[in-house]
Specification:
By secondary structure, the chain is of the alpha/beta class. Helix content is about 45%, strand content about 20%. The protein contains twelve helices and eleven strands. The longest helix has 18 residues, at about 200-220. The two termini are about 35 Å apart. The relative contact order is 0.11.
């Protein structure tokens, strides 16, 4: 088992290993367990046996749970169960479910303790760590939320064995992104045949990818600077999710978005990292995109959370592990979009 420490004003640990769901302990006496409807039933049963939650709340699968309507229902159920201020919310499932659960914990009684039990690769590498919680609006992804760090994160690698291959590959996008922005050793390791459920390098590669994010959020919890670098590829990715009504999954969208960001990086004078992003796309095999135009996608990119009063900003790379935040002229964005469409069509 590996343990990664996340520092800052509210430090906590991230444990990565086998069999963690059956060994859970939380100090709070009353807890609410929140999980998605498509969760394998044995996971909820194991956690229920470990924690004996006061109430279990099932929510819709994937991003269908990240709405204000679902949040309202969850908060009402917490109140009906009389979860007290010294109680806790436990989020079990993929990143969407833990995002919702964390925001419910941040909102209910102005904040109760939160524990995260991610069961997908994407959830482990990205959503569970860092304290970002929230839901979506029709106008864009993650536009409503709060920073609410968990008390602890448990990444039980046994849960990854239940994932379809396509879902596992989706989650690898965030691990590969951490290689591009911080730890290039992850690039080859993620594409290795051993990076798979039960593979020899799974636990260490997963822990090292988590450690990249843990280090960043320790230094910049509320995204005042460095934490924005974790959004490499996400400006287009979030737009693809929103413009398609979340028909494009987050992991696939990040895979596509990283290649667009690599094209922009090259256009703005950086090293040509497109061979890396194309290699990942060929490995990931993301689902094909519907027909899209730049003019349809751009309004969603303009509402990206990295935007300020002067406009949208993109995370780009001077070279491997050399990220920076900048504005990109619209003609460059438009030109790269055309090149990106050709490239991802070939990658498909």
């Amino acid at each position: 088992m590996r343990r990664i420490e996340v520092g800052g004003a509210q430090p906590y640990g991230v444990e990565v290993g086998e069999g963690l769901l059956s060994r859970l302990q939380v100090p709070q006496g009353q807890t609410a367990l929140i999980h998605p409807a498509d969760l394998p039933p044995q996971f909820a049963e194991t956690v229920q046996a470990s924690l004996c939650p006061t109430v279990t709340i099932e929510v819709p699968a994937r991003d269908d749970c990240k709405t204000l309507e679902v949040l309202s229902g969850v908060l009402s159920k917490l109140a009906a169960a009389n979860i007290p201020r010294d109680g806790a919310v436990v989020g079990l499932g993929g990143g969407a479910a833990t995002d919702l659960a964390g925001f419910a914990a941040a909102s209910y009684l102005r904040g109760v303790a939160f524990y995260t039990l991610p069961t997908t690769l994407l959830g482990m590498v990205d959503a569970a760590v860092g304290g970002k919680t929230g839901v979506n609006l029709p106008e864009g992804k993650n536009l409503v939320g709060a920073f609410h760090p968990p008390q602890a994160v448990w990444c039980d690698t046994d849960t990854l064995a239940t994932l379809p291959d396509a879902v596992f590959r989706e989650g690898a996008a965030e691990a590969y992104k951490h290689g591009l922005i911080s730890d290039p050793s992850l690039l080859e390791r993620v594409l290795s045949p051993q990076f798979r459920p039960g593979g020899a390098n799974l636990e260490d590669t997963l822990a090292d990818a988590i450690a990249v994010k843990a280090g960043v959020v320790t230094r910049d919890l509320t995204e005042q600077g460095e934490r924005a670098y974790l959004n490499f590829g996400h400006t287009l990715a979030h737009a693809l999710e929103a413009v398609t009504g979340h028909a494009v999954t987050h992991g696939d969208a990040v895979g596509y978005g990283m290649h667009y960001a690599a094209l922009l990086s090259r256009a703005m004078g950086g090293a040509d990292l497109t061979p890396h992003t194309l290699a990942f796309l060929k490995w990931q095999q993301p689902r094909p995109l519907p027909p899209l135009t730049f003019d349809a996608v751009m309004p969603y990119m303009a509402r990206d959370k990295k935007a300020d009063s002067q406009g949208v900003r993109f995370v780009l790379l001077c070279d491997l592990a050399q990220p920076y935040l900048t504005r990109v002229p619209e003609d460059v964005l438009r030109g790269a979009f055309g090149e990106w469409q050709t490239a991802v069509g070939d990658a498909d």
